[in-house]
């Protein structure tokens, strides 16, 4: 039997046997990749329409990023922040410039960037705004996804993410996403920050109502509250702009960045803000052994340079229109809703037809990898190097899956 000669089944079995089941991956075992394409252990090829949840915006093994990593591996990989290394200043200066902010604070994972933003906002609240000790509060949105630490899941509204992980960290108020009046009503003298995803990725690429983000900006400014934009998934070219906030000309006080900042090679995250905000931290108050390490900085500096040209943002905006047109053509033919910004789409499948998981399994069988989120929603986020023909191919495969 041909099936007996395939390497995938035993690799899937072993992966399940020896790991905690905190994920439910598609049964595909990838062994190599280039650009927008993946190859599995049995030589089958797949078009990547997830891009590592936007960590692979520049595609797999982008030559400039791989070269930077190789060169750095041969020179210096880690110093810790006890010493300064020669890749550090360039990275921080160029990322700060890309963000239009004075300073950056590098970390590793997205969750660490969120934790950093929370700590900075609280300290700013006590030291600059004058909030009474222990009273600082942060407003967040229903349906948020900001990571998996105990503090972050404390203000999650997803029971899978939150249940049985208490006791929970106090100091957060949840308001409905997109409801400016509710947000404004929740603000009081102890509010130090509003923490939002400008587009809610995990929730299914939920776009904010027009005017919401500018409204949040105005309300924050009027009430001396920091606006923290979690652009970990939405930022760095994904939506056709450097930052999703830019679509409505909104500039937050803090950007939280991650995922694509590491070029799909190393985990790199960062917080960018002006000196009156990030300047509240003193030595010993925050840090990370690997944060801002030489390998991370070498790769991430090249990421920032790729973005500084604007080419990826333009490509994402242009190709996003093609993706939108293709997906909107499937409305009423198995799709009940389509939300697109740049090369980022959330599509809701008619639940009577199939679940998102089933759709992704059927797409996989047709050589396209995507990932379901809640219920019958799937998210399409191909690497920004995808070609127009490849977008048409992905849409055609989805059409075939929906047609059964
Ligand atoms: C908006 C957002 N914030 C934070 C995170 C957490 O990032 P990480 O998984 O690198 O900790 C994610 C991850 O999906 C995210 O989408």
From TrEMBL:
GO molecular function terms attached to this record: identical protein binding; ornithine aminotransferase activity; pyridoxal phosphate binding
Q: Which UniProt keywords apply?
A: Amino-acid biosynthesis, Aminotransferase, Proline biosynthesis, Pyridoxal phosphate, Transferase
Identify the EC number(s): 2.6.1.13
- What cofactor requirement does the entry state? pyridoxal 5'-phosphate
What SUPFAM superfamilies does the record point to?
A: PLP-dependent transferases
The family classification in the record reads: Belongs to the class-III pyridoxal-phosphate-dependent aminotransferase family.
Which pathway?
A: Amino-acid biosynthesis; L-proline biosynthesis; L-glutamate 5-semialdehyde from L-ornithine: step 1/1
Q: Set out the biological process GO terms recorded for this chain's protein.
A: L-proline biosynthetic process
**Source species of the chain:** Micromonospora matsumotoense
Q: Which Pfam families match?
A: Aminotran_3
Protein's UniProt name: ornithine aminotransferase
The UniProt entry, under InterPro entries, shows: Aminotrans_3, Aminotrans_3_PPA_site, Class-III_PLP-dep_AT, Orn_aminotrans, PyrdxlP-dep_Trfase, PyrdxlP-dep_Trfase_major, PyrdxlP-dep_Trfase_small
